[in-house]
Amino acid sequence: MQTLSKWRLYQNKILAAIGHPTMTLDQLVFSNPETNSLYAVSAPAKWLSVLLKNFNMKKITPHGFRHTHATLLFETGVDVKEVQARFGHANSQTTLDIYTHITESRQHETADKFSAFMSN
């Protein structure tokens, strides 16, 4: 909440400088600072595309970050029901089947566990 409070102060400053009222009940949290209106639905994907190109990074979509988030939550040991609730899925199978992936470090960990088991 502290981050959102800081954002709100910054947003108020920017919008006030261009003459937009900022203390209305229907003020958007993230609005186009030039028009104080919604950004186009495609805007985040365009911003991400520019960043990926500028930093020569592998392509990922904004939705791809959702998959990464779920995978990393599982990797750190968060329970499937907690991830399901966080993602708003009706059942945990959706979370497991679609949003989680096996990371390379988890593959190595599994191989090490199996090797240790076979050595005993």
TrEMBL record:
One of its GO terms (molecular function) is DNA binding. GO terms for biological process: DNA integration; DNA recombination. Signal peptide: none annotated. Residues 1-112 form the Tyr recombinase domain. The keyword Transmembrane helix does not apply. InterPro entries: DNA_brk_join_enz, Integrase-like_cat_sf, Integrase_catalytic. Keywords: DNA recombination. It holds the Pfam family Phage_integrase. This is Bacteriophage integrase. It comes from Ligilactobacillus equi DPC 6820.
